[in-house]
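Ssu-2 homolog: structure tokens wanted.
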Amino acid sequence: EIPPVSEVDARNALLGLVTEHCCWGRSAARHMSIGKILSSSAFHYEIQTFTEKRETSWAFMPHGGGEIDGPRCGPAPRPWDIPADPSDLFRSEMKVLQVPHTASVKTCHRCRGAGSLLCQECHGKGWTRCLSCHGDGWGSDSAGNKERCFFCQSSTHGRGRQCNAKGRVACPPCDSYGQIRCYISLTITWKANTSEHIVAKCSSLPEDLIRQVSGQVVYEEEGPRIPPLNTFADPTINLASAQLVLNHNRQWPDQRILAQRQQVRMVPVTEVHYTWKRRTGKFFLYGYEHKVYAPDYPQTCCWGCSIL
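Answer:
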């Protein structure tokens, strides 16, 4: 049942919109003559399909010793045979798992088993030339007098900061162990895929506005697979449901559908006609919070600020 909107409600809602715009004049909202008030409703249909996708790829990590779960421990399971469940239905998330019995130890491809790399800052020397005096050890003060370099104190070079004067740095891929553990990584992605359709009897009201406000849920259904609507009061919703359900069942052939749900919300819409200074127009109230859409409000220019 659509709640009725009185003339006072409509005027107060419009005044609330005007106060949000510093350049809009209030005179029109206060003194306009309100005529017809037409109540209707818009329907917001939404379908969600919760899918699961599994992808495999090679990965590696540093190997510092310990047991290896390799082919000797048994055959590797297929991606869809590995047990894994989402935390909640219709909540997007991702998990990365190691496929059992696929690990092996190899020499690090970056350092070739050395565990360290040549320092790129000092090029293996363990020190760098002073950038202030360019290795001279001396500089000049403001008066042009020769003085000891403030930065290197005439040592002409400084310790390599990245390598701590050792000339080599730890190898990132193997974390200085010289070996890496290679395995097959399984990435599981759960995603809530959403489609929607909005039916508004008033074509002047943008659909995006209906999506943003509250309404009343008049139909909802959830299950492993849901049939399209065919008995809803508005045939346009039935047609949209049939098309979107069909699309969702075909759209992700490489994924598994775990659950589906659909919902229809009814959003109240009120069309208010007015006259002000022999000029006619209309504005709209939508949602239970009485949001206002007034595209042709007569006082939207800056001169309206002074008209109270």
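The mean pLDDT is 88. The first strand starts at residue 33 and ends at 62.

Cheers.
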